[in-house]
Structures are given as C-alpha cells and as structure tokens.
Design brief:
With 127 residues, the protein is of the alpha/beta class. The protein contains five helices and five strands. A five-stranded mixed sheet has the order 2-3-1-4-5, with helices on both faces. The radius of gyration is 13 Å and the shape is globular. The N and C termini lie far apart (35 Å).
Length: 127
C-alpha cells in the first residue's frame, strides 16, 4: 500500500488552488516546470516520489505566504470524497499561524504527519 503525501509549494507553471495527482518525476516536471528561487516545494515533491509515495501537489502563489491558496486547498481536502487517506501534509516555508492552524483539521481527520522545514517548525512549536 502506497502512502499519500499532500504538498503545497511554488512552481513555474500549473493552476493555483487545484490538486494535481503526480505519479512520477516526468509528470512532475511536465506539470510544474522548474522550481522558483527560494522555493522548496518541488524538492520535497521529488523526495516523496523517490520514496515511492503518492503525491497530491497544490501550487501556491508564494510558499508560506499565500494564505488564500493554502486555505482553499485545505477546504478541497476537507470536503473531498475521493481522497481516502492522507499520510502526510508537507508545508515547506510556512510560518503563518493561520495556515498552520488550518492544517491541523486535516491532520487530525486523517491522523497524518505534518512535514515542515526547520524555520516553520520553530514557528509551529512557538505558536
């Protein structure tokens, strides 16, 4: 059984506020292009695929700061009947308490892990 990782990150191309199921690296590159400077989302996506995880990628305008993109994505995840289980939610660059709090509903519902980078972990632990 493969585990599902939901990832929010910046990308060169693709629609915003829409979930993209990604099965392999070539699909990832075709769908999203190159990573923007300072972005970590596509690098985390590559790691998820290399570890043979199913990936659901949401493109956001700016990692960590586009609250509307994140909240819309959480709303889609919360109301989706097609996503049976989410094993991890990856939010690189997110330090905004509003976004982190909103992600908790999904994490609790699916009993999933929250994956963040070092800077966001400090923000999460001190909120």
């Amino acid at each position: 059984m493969r585990h599902t990782v939901v990832l929010f990150g910046e990308a060169e191309k693709g629609q915003f506020q829409r979930p993209y199921p990604v099965k392999d690296l070539s699909q990832l590159i075709d769908s999203f292009g190159h990573p923007p400077p300072e972005s970590e989302g596509l690098f985390f996506a590559i790691q998820a695929l290399l570890f043979e995880r199913d990936l659901l990628y949401f493109r956001v305008t700016e990692e960590g700061f586009s609250a509307n993109d994140y909240l819309k994505g959480f709303h889609i995840l919360q109301n989706s009947k097609e996503i049976a289980k989410i094993d991890a939610i990856c939010l690189p660059g997110v330090g905004d308490n509003k976004i982190l709090k909103a992600s908790e509903k999904i994490s609790h519902k699916h009993k999933s892990f929250l994956i963040v980078d070092q800077k966001a972990l400090f923000d999460y632990l001190t909120m």
